[in-house]
Amino acid sequence: MARRLEADRVLFGAVVCLVLFGIVMVYSASAVIAAQQYHSSTYFLVRQVAWATLGLLLMVGVMNVDYRRLKNPMLIFPALGLQLILLVLVLFSSLNHDTHRWLHLGPATFQPSELSKIVLIIFLAYFLSLRKNRVNDWSETLLPVGLIAGLDVLLVLREPDFGTALALAVIVGAMLFAAGLRVAYMAYAVVASIPAIYWLVFHVGYRYRRILAFLHPYAHSLGAGFQIIQSYIAVGSGGILGVGLMEGKEKLFFLPEPQTDFIFGVIGEELGLIGGLVVLGLFGVILWRGLRAAFRAKDDFGRLLALGLTAMIVIQALVNVSVVVGLLPTKGIPLPFISYGGSSLVFSLIEMGILLNISQNTS
Amino acid sequence: MASSKPQTEGSAALESPVVRRTLVLAAFLFLWMLVVALRLYDLQVIQYVRWLARGERQQQQVVEIAPQRGIIYDRNLHPLAMSLPAESIYAVPNQIPDPGMVVHLLAPILKLDPQDLLGQFKAYRSFCWIERKVSHEQAARVKALNLKGIYFEKEMKRFYPNGDLAAQVLGYVGMDNNGLAGLEYSFNSLMKGKSGRVLLETDARHHSFKSVEQPGQPGQNLVLTLDRGIQFIAERELAKIVKKYHAAGGVVIVQNPHTGDILAMASQPTFNPNDFEQAPAGATENRAVAWIYEPGSTFKLVTISAALQEGLASPDQVINCQEGQIVVAGIVTHDWHPFGDLTVAQVLMNSSEVGTIKIGLRLGEQRLYDWILRYGFDRRTDIGLASEERGLLEPPSRWSGISIADISTGQGVGITPLQLVDAYSAVANGGVMMKPRIVSATGDGSDLKPVPVSPGRRILSPQTDEEMKQMLEGVVTGGTGRPAQLDGYSAAGKTGTAQKIDSHGRYSHHHYIASFIGFAPVENPAVTILVAIDTPVGAIYGDQVAAPAFKFIAEQTLNYLSVPQDQPSQPLQVASLTHPAARRQQRLATSGNPPNNFESAEAATRPVSANAGVWSPGLSSVGTVILDDGPRVTVPDFAGQSARQVASECQALGFEAELSGLGVAVEQTPPAGAQVPLHTSVWVRLAR
């Protein structure tokens, strides 16, 4: 009984919807700023369209490559090495916004931490499916995983990019948890990381101010709390139906980074509760269909890979949106598929390509 | 295969810890999503009003700065409307250390209520206007206080240097730089330019505000066909007549019949657009295009020229005018005089009602109607002035039996003054009607794009036109239009006395519209001029009321335009020499110039400075030479202008400019608003 191999159309549709919606919102959020800074209101739009085109082509390409070909140590370990080298290299790149996050490749820039995310997920899926019944074995499983993941997290922290580092740590934790890590071990890890997090927060001035601002925005309404209040104003003033596409005022120099990290604020203002819930719903569709692919995968590698990729996208989206609506302190995480930015968009789409391939290779 | 053994694989998968743990993770993530959704509901529905209000308050930090509005020039590039910088004062109350003190200092200078101002400071923490477009002196005094948190913004204030000159044509501009009437309204989008923006940003670390200025784009300039000198002549003569006859209002239009260019368009009552809020009721209406009136006898041109062109009559053909009575559709119409046999030319010359009605009857309803449309009535001219009317004319199917008699003689048809001027200009222009034009070019600065003169439309054959010209000249030389005879020039034209419709819908026996329309010189006319007076008191006939005004306007305009005389000039008549100034002037004139050239000499020696409406050379209404003590001009406020602007404005207004220093004008003598004679020296100090 031959079964036609067919990727999950619902998942595919949700991703394409988010990408197209993102293009519209990037234009709306950035037109004024682009006109001011680059003398062309379509500066960000044109680049986002180019990246989206590249990303969608790659997604369709990857979708047609059997994911089991990734389950290959000759591919995974060199890739692990490459991403480590790039994470080291990026520390020597020129400063941008006081951070070393971007590698310059000719006219394009590239964030190595995006590559790290996908490589780490593939590695964990491979490694944990190999150690299927020995996940809680210290020397065989936890030490190697801890070393590799810890190195990645530390290097990303050096950039510094606290948000991405935390996302990496969370995704490693989530995959270990899914693979059957003892809950007690997870508790130990959390307790052990508390001093580190404490130090990272309280000894880096801007993070401390962000936390304070998060807790007491009005006491810092002209300083660090400014972003949070602007974000509240943007989302809150949108109401149920929003003020209308392109009509938002908060993106006019009030809302920080309106086309990247705070783009959900622009969505909330211009398209209201309806627009916000639609975006949230589309990520819900990705979570549902991604996990469905995980459950139906033929092997543990596929199961863990689908879970990791799905969790990666959805956790990033939830963190980003939670920051915008004031449920989490400010950190720099883009909204997948929607925020302006080439590396994030292209890698997110490649990840979806893999997930779509898993969805068509079901048992 | 997939369905044959689902249990084993499926149950194995379900039991695997990966699936169970994944379900836990999924539940956690869905829960998180739900929390975010509830939070969105909280912010956007429950707290909606609060964040909306807060957003609106801070969004006032984006301040629109009106762009430099385009200048309106007359045909010789004298500015008729311009925008001068005026200072506006605003506050950033957050930065004011002691608001009470600041209010105490500012309120008296700006004549503001201290409590109001303090309230504003409390309500708008990050931005509020204190007062917009203040005087230069007030701005200087506030600047001298050097207060923290008080800032100045240059805004543009519309200024009409000639006061009420061409007020209804130009229109006026509101506080936010949108034209509200006249050309300022109809060409608003062209002249307005693009707004600049000041963005007041919060600097997160320094708790202060900085402003980013995004410059706007200046609007385009308009060059009009109006001539400031002719406009002034037209307005002055119109004002005199309206005053003399206690009329409700009036209109004068001067047009070049060869191009359709409007050289002057005057309307009474009038107003000062610099102070448009004080305009009397009806004064802002441009009667030349917005007033529908019944023309009366001036409309006989249409009836008679149509009959000539259709071959239904010839100038020498005799018409029996039936001793002043005719019955049409059972209704008797009386002529103003019991004429017997008249030629068609004499019918026009004497403005015979019966004669004209009989010519109209030869045309018949449909042909008369077609000819009225052919002359451009019942249709807007699309000259570009706001609120232009099309007139009132019923189609023949709705005419009553008497309508043809009424309409042949210019009653029962509503027209605008401009439509009638176009019709007479067509006759003056050899039978070809030009589209009227008031804007001759648009563009920025020196890059002016001319508005093309549209090709004309032939109404009458050259032969018919020549006959009409001779007949209209006959009206002036020997008919009802004799008071319009010019000194030194031939003229052709027609009088009109129309009854107005009273409040009961009947023709009034008290309210008339007296008009005269004509062109001069008859061969190759330079101007077509209409004078129409609404409800004159004491005299009602076009030849009494309007024809003399036509004469004064035509004589002065033709001299002003240096049109060569085609008739022998009469010796200068000095009817009254009682006024000493007049006597002095007359001596001066006769000693220096041949008497018959007095007017042109006058026009030549005095640059036309129509500022503030005090320029007054030439003839008074009775042909007597009475001059004012000398032309006086209002000194404008030069504050903030560059040396080049000051110099060019001085030149335009007829001052000698003396400049000292570098930068923009900060001080001047005599002060702004002073009335001084022409050629006075104006001293202006510039500073950075």
Describe this structure in words.
The complex is a heterodimer of chains A (363) and B (688). The relative contact order of chain A is 0.16. Chain A has twelve helices and two strands. Chain A has one domain. Chain A is an all-alpha fold. A two-stranded antiparallel ribbon of chain A has the order 1-2. In chain B, strands 2, 3, 4, 5, 8, 16 and 17 form a seven-stranded mixed beta sheet that branches. In chain B, strands 10-9-21-20-19 form a five-stranded antiparallel beta sheet, with helices on both faces. With 688 residues, chain B is α+β, with helices and mostly antiparallel strands. In chain B, α4 packs antiparallel against α6 (136-145) and α12 packs across α14. In chain B, 35% of the residues lie in helices and 22% in strands. The model of chain B is unreliable at 1-15, 201-210 and 572-629 (pLDDT under 50). Among the domains of chain B are: 22-60; 66-184 and 192-224, Penicillin-binding protein 2a (Domain 2) (Alpha-Beta Complex), CATH 3.90.1310. Chains A and B meet through α6, α9, α10 and α11 of A and α2, α3 and β6 of B.
Salient structural properties:
heterodimer, A: 363 residues, mainly alpha, two-stranded antiparallel sheet, 2 strands, globular, B: 688 residues, alpha+beta, Penicillin-binding protein 2a (Domain 2), 7-stranded mixed sheet, 26 strands
CATH topology of the domain at 66-184 and 192-224 in chain B: Penicillin-binding protein 2a (Domain 2)
Distance between the termini of chain B: 91 Å
Can you tell me the number of structural domains of chain A? 1
Distance between the amino and carboxyl termini of chain A: 13 Å
Largest interface: pair, residues per side: A-B, 54 and 45 residues
Question: Which CATH class of the domain at 66-184 and 192-224 in chain B?
Answer: Alpha Beta
Mean pLDDT of chain B: 80
Indicate the structural class of chain A.
mainly alpha
Give the name of the CATH superfamily of the domain at 66-184 and 192-224 in chain B. Penicillin-binding protein 2a (Domain 2)
Radius of gyration of chain A: 20 Å
